[in-house]
Amino acid sequence: MSTQRPVVRIIGAGPTGALLAILLQRRGHAVELYEGRTDPRGTPLESGRSINLALADRGIHALRLAGVFEDLEHAMLPMRGRLIHDPEGGTSLQPYGQRPNEVIYSVSRHRLNQALLEVAARLPGVTAHFEHRFEAAEFDEGMALIRDLRHGRLITVPMEPLLAADGAGSALRRRLHSLNLIDAQETDLEHGYKELSIPADAAGRFRMARDALHIWPRGNYMLIALPNDDGSFTATLFLPKRGELSFDGLTSAADIDRFLSESFPDARDLMPNAIAEFTGNPVGFLGTVSARPWHYRGVAALIGDSAHAIVPFHGQGMNCCFEDCVEFDACMDRSSSWESVFAEFFARRKPNTDAIAAMSLDNYLEMRDRVVHPQFQLQQALSLELEIRHPRRFIPRYSMVTFHHEIPYETAWQRGIIQGELLAELTAGPVQSLADVDFERAEREIIARLPLLTARA
Ligand SMILES: Cc1cc2nc3c(=O)[nH]c(=O)nc-3n(C[C@H](O)[C@H](O)[C@H](O)COP(=O)(O)OP(=O)(O)OC[C@H]3O[C@@H](n4cnc5c(N)ncnc54)[C@H](O)[C@@H]3O)c2cc1C
Question: Which residue owns the Cα nearest ligand 1 atom 39?
Answer without folding.
Answer: 166
